Amino acid sequence: MMTGGTPRWAIGGALVLALGLSGCAGASPAGGDPGSGGKVTVGIKFDQPGLGLKNGDSFEGFDVEVARYVAKELGYTDVEFRETPSAQRETMLQSDQVKMIFATYSITDDRKKKVSFAGPYFIAGQDLLVSASASGITGPESLNGKKLCSVVGSTSAKKIKDTIANEVQLQEYDTYSKCVEALASGSIDAVTTDNVILAGFAAQPQYAGKLKVVGKTFSTERYGVGIKQGDTKLCTAINDALAKMVSDGSWQKALDDTVGTSGFTPDAATNPPKADACA
Question: Taking residues 156-167, what's their average pLDDT?
Fold first, then answer.
């Protein structure tokens, strides 16, 4: 039959389509709400050994293991990992390219203006990576006259020169892996960034027994799970999953199996941390 020149079947089909679209309108393309099952897209680093590393078609590291545990606890049955470079993290959350980010993502007030955080799930601190045989470098104050490496654009090495050891010689490369290679070859004396990142490099097979983290932190970095701003339901679910991961021993096992192989042990006074309240 026709209604005002339009077949009834066309009206009915359009109504069904409209209802179907309205039912999907609130769903994120990166994954549904906790408990909804299905696929979730998670952001990680692809180039941080021991934390977030793409190795062929597989992914490994502490951040990866925490992400897998949390995703499973939230009911997701399929996890897709997507690379989230530091400069793109907020944009990728805001545009629904990823549902959650586990990528040494420090919780800061500036970032909270754009995204929300669950966690923290790890408390890191700036430290030094040196040769395993080095005995003269015991902390940043012993770096005067030494060659210190960090990446271009990082403030960590400059902070040491400006506030602690003004006679240190700074060397910059475009990646931490190049800094670590230079350290292993003996052309520099130390590398600086967060302790757990340094431990990840030291845990690589080619550096086994050759490098060590000094173990004297001089900053505080609270690694959180980045999520879309204001999603308190997801934040609460992630915090519950993190608490369970700690209580059942999976958090410690994940740490031991990844960066722990370098001999690194985190500060027991701050790790494992308790999550902040979701707001």
Answer: 91
